[in-house]
Amino acid sequence: MQHWYVYIVRCADGSFYTGVTTDLQRREREHNGCGRLGARYTRARRPVQLVWAEVQEGRSAALKREYEIKRLRRVEKLKLVETGREIMPEIKR
């Protein structure tokens, strides 16, 4: 089974971008590259730096976790990046 990652990059303007991938280093290169492989959001905010990631068991789990993180407030994302762990109670499914 292939591992999927949920990741957060910090953009040059200090904002965060959250996404999913199977290869963290490749995805960071794509976000920073000159091609169209990086997300539209990060293209105007380069360079970006990978600041947080976690492994998920599959694509579906990674997409669900990405959605949870995207719903966090900035202060919660900062805490997640700084501590390396989630600060909010487990989301009920």
From TrEMBL:
Domain GIY-YIG: residue ranges: 2-79
InterPro entries hit by this protein: GIY-YIG_endonuc, GIY-YIG_endonuc_sf, UPF0213_domain
Domain of life, per lineage: Bacteria
PROSITE patterns: GIY_YIG
Pfam family, one: GIY-YIG
Signal peptide positions (record): none
Family: Belongs to the UPF0213 family.
The name this protein goes by in its record: UPF0213 protein
